[in-house]
Prior knowledge:
mainly alpha, globular
Amino acid sequence: xxxxxxxxxxxxxxxxxxxxxxxxxxxxxxxxxxxxxxxxxxxxxxxxxxxxxxxxxxxxxxxxxxxxxxxxxxxxxxxxxxxxxxxxxxxxxx
Length: 94
């Protein structure tokens, strides 16, 4: 039997370490659409990022993430979800 443990995502800002809880599949669906949402309606995109981060972290972490420049926040979310929108992993047989 496989064990799918929920490992938190740890990252650093400066010398401080922060933790975001692992995302569920529904969270990943929301997170992968954030880039498009930001282009269509910046305010709703920012709200989606805030809600996602706030729902999966403590106040200290959420505040630290939301204080980052927008580009860094998007990079962090991509690292967190482990996916890059528009890319797929090949088997290496090609």
